[in-house]
Write a structure and sequence with these properties.
Blueprint lengths: L12 H30 L15 E6 L5 E8 L3 H5 L10 E7 L4 E8 L4 E5 L8 E7 L9 E11 L4 E4 L3 E5 L1 E3 L6 E10 L5 E9 L12 H15 L8 H19 L8 E4 L7 H6 L1 H4 L33 E3 L4 E4 L3 E5 L1 E3 L6 E8 L9 E3 L6 E6 L3 E10 L6 E10 L4 E6 L4 E4 L3 E9 L7 E6 L5 E5 L4 E7 L4 E11 L4 E11 L5 E7 L5 E7 L9 E10 L2 E6 L2 E7 L5 E6 L3 E8 L2 E8 L12 E2 L14 E2 L2 E7 L17 H6 L8 E3 L4
Parallel strand pairs: 15-22, 24-30
Antiparallel strand pairs: 1-2, 2-3, 3-6, 4-5, 4-7, 7-8, 7-9, 10-11, 11-12, 12-13, 14-17, 16-20, 18-21, 19-20, 21-22, 23-25, 25-28, 26-27, 26-29, 29-30, 31-32, 31-41, 32-33, 33-34, 34-42, 35-36, 36-37, 37-38, 38-39, 38-40
Helix pairs in contact: 3-4
Length: 677
């Protein structure tokens, strides 16, 4: 109990009673603040208990007849409360905080009107605390726009008599979204007090660990654009926010991304306020220790640049019109053919000045290169250049009174290599010697100012180099002898960028001789092979191939039904390709060596990357690099010269090739199981 003794002089009783009433009210208000603070500490809100007084954009208090506190209410728009109290829940938004005196026989009635109209009543509370605090939601949840709100709270006794009210308060419910991304989780736009006499619109985002983590200079613009575009789409800024204010808010976000990553970390939210002036990019980039990404606050000493006012200067002797200020923004880099954003700004005391972008190519830029601005009259725009190198872009501001003012930035354009597509030849194309093998290849390059050179390495010791024509590398080549040739097609631009592709071409010579052999390999493969072109005009060889392949379930014997081609090189290497009823096969022969490859025809006509059997797995398909295995038993015979007819064969193939061929009709099937070769 508080006791106050006062000595009253005669004739001053009325005045002293007024003084006593004011003292009593002041002491009561102090006690109420202490009790409310205890109540806020004891009653949790969201996941934690706030430990500081709540700031709100509008509030009202009701006192009773004896100056006792009956109720207090404050409105918290958008993410305002989370901005003020980090330990509260970011999903709590657009709500009232109401403090009610317990068990006083008075019921509080809170009402509001806007999108999501509603009301709330609460009577006596329980517990040992004299005051309790409640949360009342307006139901303006996950709204994409701001909504005006008018609200009031009143107190009523048990007999229905009104004991007082707050009067009508005006505010704005904030927009809200929890549909963030990997850079931020929540966003909100709401109106808040900026100074004692001025409100502002605030865009608040809650950054993720990724956004506040590692300093990556190349991602600052991309991160800022990503957060800005998504947040302003989910929670749009109201039309009352001017283009100049939007630009200031974008710069604040850019500053938070850049300098937060550099270690000057701010709070748990990034708050972008429209009331902050639109300062130059130089100030944004270099003044962070002064402004902390929130420039123009009271008491900051006016560090930022604000253009002078017309007729400014003490005594009116200043210039009639000041020259505009202009900033071309930070230097940027980009791949050639792609657009990059220029963050220019311009201001003038007489309003927004006229602006124009121009460019100058550096000494490292090839003649003929050009740059195009999306909007050469807009301070913030994009530019696209047709060739790599360094360009100086200039933003000029003209207020129509003073001499134009300019600022420059550097655009570094990186070279992008051309991309090649080869239409011909296809892999495993088959051609006869001394006939044209065509190469048809096209390419794309984002650099329209580049020149290109084509190069084809034919794998027979020769190379063709020639200028590209109309975006293509087309040519032909004649091979003089048989082989499996891995040719390489390459296109290169004049800045060193290049792309290439390989194709293997099979070249046969029907005038070559005979490939034959029989034997086994150390892994258990057994084979017999005989192949020859019957005449100098033949396009497919005659002969037969049989492979007895070891498998986990026994042997699988594959007998040819068709030979597709035979290659015999001048240095006595041979390869034959064909098929059985169900399998494709390849046989590589050298003196005392053999490689067998089989695969199901369901996998295609050419061997897959992992065939069902390969005696030299992983080796190249090219005959020169096929790596056949040394025979365990048997022999191979390769005749590089051509003679008409089929010669006699060594045992165990039979007396003549003709006798072997006579048996083929009965052998045109695949044998499975434990059948011996």
């Amino acid at each position: 109990m508080l006791t106050t003794a006062v000595w009253l002089q005669p004739g001053r009783l009325v005045r002293e009673r007024l003084v006593m009433k004011r003292v009593k009210r002041a002491l009561l208000h102090t006690a109420v603040v202490l009790v409310m603070a205890l109540g806020l500490l004891a009653v949790p809100f969201g996941p934690g208990a706030p430990q500081e007084a709540q700031a709100a954009t509008s509030a009202g208090t009701i006192y009773g007849e004896d100056d006792e506190l009956l109720g207090f209410a404050s409105f918290n728009p958008g993410l305002h409360y989370y901005h003020e109290h980090e330990d509260s829940d970011p999903d709590e938004h657009n709500f009232f905080r109401v403090t009610d005196r317990c068990n006083d026989g008075v019921e509080l009635h809170l009402s509001w009107s806007s999108a999501g109209d509603g009301e709330w009543r609460h009577g006596d509370c329980t517990g040992w605390l004299p005051y309790r605090t409640y949360t009342v939601h307006t139901q303006h949840q996950s709204k994409p726009d701001m909504a005006a709100i008018a609200w009031a709270m009143s107190a009523w006794d048990a007999e229905g008599d009104r004991q007082g009210g707050t009067g009508v308060q005006s505010d704005w419910q904030g927009s809200f979204s929890d549909d963030g991304d990997d850079l931020y989780t929540h966003s909100s736009v709401y109106e808040d007090a900026f100074t004692d006499t001025r409100d502002t619109v605030v865009l608040t985002v809650i950054p993720t660990d990724k956004a506040t983590g590692v300093y990556l200079p190349d991602t600052i613009d991309a991160y800022t654009d990503q957060i800005w575009d998504r947040a302003t789409e989910k929670t749009p800024l109201p039309a009352s926010v001017s283009a100049d204010e939007r630009e200031s808010m974008y710069k604040q976000l850019w500053c938070h991304v850049k300098f937060n990553l550099e270690g000057i970390k701010g709070g748990h939210t990034w708050d972008l306020e429209a009331a902050h002036p639109n300062v130059s990019w130089e100030r944004v980039n270099n003044g962070v220790k002064d402004h902390g990404c929130n420039w123009g606050n009271q008491g900051d000493g006016g560090w930022f640049d604000v253009p002078p006012t017309d007729g400014g200067g003490d005594g009116g002797d200043g210039p009639a019109d000041a020259a505009p200020s202009v900033d071309a923004g930070p230097d940027v880099s980009v791949d050639e053919g792609s657009q990059v954003t220029l963050e220019g700004t311009a201001a003038d005391d007489g309003g927004t000045p006229a602006t124009t972008w121009t460019y100058t190519a550096g000494d490292d830029v090839d003649e003929g290169a050009t740059c195009t601005f999306a909007d050469a009259s807009a301070p913030r725009t994009t530019v696209t250049c047709t060739d790599d190198g360094t360009y100086t872009v200039t933003l000029t501001a003209d207020d129509g009174v003073n001499a134009p003012v300019s600022d420059t930035a550097t655009v570094t354009v990186r070279n992008v290599a051309p991309t090649l597509q080869v239409a011909k030849p296809a892999d495993w194309d088959v051609h006869r010697v001394e006939t044209d093998v065509p190469v048809k290849a096209s390419f794309t390059d984002p650099d329209s100012n580049d020149t290109h050179t084509c190069k084809v390495t034919w794998d027979d010791g020769s190379t063709s180099t020639f200028p590209a024509k109309d975006g293509a590398c087309d040519t032909t080549h004649v091979y003089d002898h048989a082989g499996m040739n891995t040719l390489t097609v390459e296109v290169a631009d004049d800045d060193g960028g290049k792309d290439s592709a390989e194709r293997m071409v099979v070249v046969y010579d029907p005038r070559a001789g005979l490939a034959s052999g029989a034997g086994t390999l150390p892994d258990g493969l057994a084979f017999t092979a005989l192949a020859k072109y019957p005449s100098a005009d033949s396009t497919v060889p005659a002969g037969a191939v049989s492979l007895s392949v070891p498998t986990a379930s026994g042997r699988q014997t594959i007998v040819s039904t068709e030979l597709e081609w035979l290659v015999i090189t001048p240095d006595a290497k041979a390869a034959v390709k064909g098929r059985s009823a169900t399998h494709g096969f390849l046989g590589y022969l050298q003196s005392g060596r053999f490689r067998g490859v089989t695969w199901p025809l369901s996998q295609g006509n050419i061997p897959p990357a992992a065939p069902s059997y390969d005696s030299t797995p992983g080796a190249s398909w090219d005959l020169d690099e096929a790596q056949p295995k040394q025979l365990a038993t048997g022999l191979t015979v390769i005749d590089t010269g051509w003679l008409p007819g089929l010669p006699s064969l060594p045992a165990p193939l039979g007396t003549t090739a003709g006798e072997l061929l006579d048996t083929l009709p009965a052998l045109r099937l695949d044998l499975h199981g434990d059948t011996e070769a």
